[in-house]
Amino acid sequence: MTPQRLLLTLGIPLGVLMAILLPAWTGYDEMTHFARAVDMATGVPVPEATDRGVGSVIPATYVEGVDLVILNFQAGNDPWTMSLTGDLLAMGPDGRSVYVDTRPTGASTPLPYIPAATAMVIPVHVDASGVIVLWAGRLGSLAAYLALAWAAVRSAARFRWTLVVGALLPLNLSLGSSVSPDGLTIASLLVVLSMWTRVEEDESVPAWQLVVGTLLLALAKPPYFLVLALFPFSAVRRRSAPRIRAAWAAAGAMLAGLAATLANASDNYRAVTTTLMESIEYQPGTQRDRLLADLPGFLWAAVSTWVSEFHFYVQN
Fold first, then answer.
1. How far is 174 from 127, CA to CA, in rounded Å?
2. Which residues face 270 on adjacent strands?
3. If you write DSSP's letter for every residue of 294-307 in order, what string do you get?
4. pLDDT confidence of 272, banded at 50, 70, 90?
């Protein structure tokens, strides 16, 4: 069996199960990303200024669906049940709308939301329930994730099995199966690494592949575009026409990524992020003091906490 065939053989069924069975809106920051994607599905590419602030206006029942999931969790029930799913399916839009602060999503360009938003267009416009819209967005994200991963594995000159393992890691596949910019970012990284293996073999990668592949990563989510420094490094290590051309393409994409980051990161993290458990208000001054007031103590606390709570960070 070829690596790319194994990728699809395992990735499609596992990804679909994750997209459907992962409790609604419990992906990483998924409610905020979901609101941004719903906004894009209605034709609004970036969060807009409203009388309630900069964010997205979505059907109120979508947010009430999230509240139902939270209440189910607080009641100690199973995170996914047929009863809960039936209640969510019955919660279609009723004409009311609600504002969601989506400024934190502005750190990413609209690009990584396009797969989910595209898949949401029809459900949103036929007033489907929020969970149906969510499932459509998740499946759209999964399709883009697996398509890019398949292309990366198929074209790689080396490490094809390693790329398959990376794409199928449960955490990566679950991100690719949720409404989040992270899935497309990971898939774009796989594409870039695949091109890098070809450049290292002094293979002449077509210009359009270099441009599209490097820009995908540069415009997905900062600061992962810094991985593109691999190409200039390869050109410095050994000069050849394919390496130099790839280095120029990567350098241009890195500049585009830096420009997008500077343009989008002005005030995006001053918003209040609402999670399933509580609201988090960003406090740059407090965070700066904790970092710099006792730097050795901060580093020790970070390392010791990571080691002692490792089992919380790794999915069972």
1. 27
2. none
3. THHHHHHHHHHHHH
4. low
